[in-house]
Amino acid sequence: MLVRDVVSWTGLISGYVKARLFNEAIALFLRMDVEPNVATFVSILGACGKLGCLNLGKGIHGLGLKCLFGKELVVCNAVLECLYRWNAF
């Protein structure tokens, strides 16, 4: 990547998720060297939901809360979708 900002990282992560390469998306998220944005959290929580990674999803949601994105409606919806997939209600 020529420009390594949150937009380029999120684009790559989102592309991996759309291609159903969930492990690669998570690995890329863990390598990010910039603060994620709302779109990043939505994409990566989707990957966690598809893989059934409950603990990782909880950790990422906690990071979202720390970054003040955890209360954004789209992030809350992504968390609810993950909880539904995990039968964690």
Automatic annotation (TrEMBL):
Keyword Repeat applies: yes
UniProt GO BP: RNA modification
First and last residues of every PPR repeat: 5-35
Protein name: Pentatricopeptide repeat-containing protein
A molecular function GO annotation: RNA binding
Keywords: Repeat
Record-linked PROSITE patterns: PPR
Cited InterPro entries: PPR_At4g14850-like_plant, PPR_rpt, TPR-like_helical_dom_sf
Pfam families: PPR_2 (PF13041)
